[in-house]
Amino acid sequence: MSHDPLHISQRALAVDASGIRKVFDLAARLKDPINLSIGQPDFDVPVEARNAACEAIQSGHNAYTQTQGIAPLRKRLQDDLSRELGRDVGEVLITSGVSGGLLLAILATVDPGDEVVFLDPYFVMYKHLVALAGGVPVPVDSDPDFRFDPDRVEKAISPRTRMLLLDSPANPTGIVMTEDEVVAAAELARRHGLLIVSDEIYAPFLYDAPGGRLPSAARHYENTLVLRGFSKSHAMTGWRLGYAAGPTPILQQMTKLQQYTFVCAPSPLQVAALTAVDLDMGWARDAYRRKRDLVVETIGKSFELARPAGAFYAFPRAPRGMSGTDFAQAALDRNVLLIPGNVFSAHDTHFRISYATSDEKLAEGCRILCELAAG
Fold first, then answer.
1. Cβ partners under 8 Å of residue 329, min gap 6
2. Are 304 and 106 in contact (CB under 8 A)?
3. pLDDT (tens digit, 9 = 90+) per residue, 120-177?
4. For a designed S-S bond to 233, which of 96, 192, 204, 304 qualifies (C-beta 3.0 to 4.6 A apart)?
5. What CATH number is given for 63-276 in this structure?
6. Domain residue limits, the chain
7. Strands 92-95, 242-245: parallel, antiparallel or unpaired by DSSP?
């Protein structure tokens, strides 16, 4: 019996190519577009961290580290996170980005047929990573305000539900869960015996939170796995550095699975992260708050918009009579790159703006979008 040597697995075929990557590739071919599509900071890695990475390479930090990451970085992150959350968070695992942490967490906890509940709209990886593990993604519609509604979420929970996946500040909406909402999420998880995975990669970009503190389910529910990283806060998207903290049995399984997948996070960059954690990045948060305000003040006059309070995204509704895809195409015809909402949602009613670009490009892009909305 012969087989096709170029056979592609059903697992791979079930995953669509990322709509964001398609726009990323398109941007590379256009001449000087107004790129409001990619979630990547428009500043470079701070020079102190770059120098520390170069020094780490030159001084020989180029071999494998322990699977769980270098001890000084794990200890520092454990101390900082424990202080923030008001309790000992236990061991920390250094991951290859938050995306790597998500994959390990899902592989460690989701069996075939298990369900994972999260809000729609959602970060594009959630649905596909759950499906890759053989799980069943269960998006819960949060339109029109994109808030966490415990009644809606509870209706989606079944005996097969294993995980409640939270994203705050959220991609693509910029919505930040309130303290009451994370308490409600924790109570739901406790009542139904669920693990909470809290994706907090955008925690450093909070604009309206009291005291600048992120409301986190980990403060209220011990069975919460927190995922954070350096990609957005320090513009280290290509460094692939994240970390996970949570229940010890799950961290142990994630560490074991990392041995057979990522092996370890990049060694010299872990060393450089020890410099990065001491840098004051408040200037970046302040810059993006101003950009957020610019978007709200301009786009908010012409589009229905849930006010973003974190991250660097806005998720306006497309003008009446147009889908998100239609509007993204109209914007492309004016050399403005957006992501249509159906990349993040079962609905194609919105579009995502990333305001991680220069003030000049952002202002010009918003002006063009408002012109398009006016017809």
1. none
2. no
3. 999 999 999 999 999 999 999 999 999 999 999 999 999 999 999 999 999 999 999 9
4. 204
5. 3.40.640.10
6. 10-44+281-374, 63-276
7. antiparallel
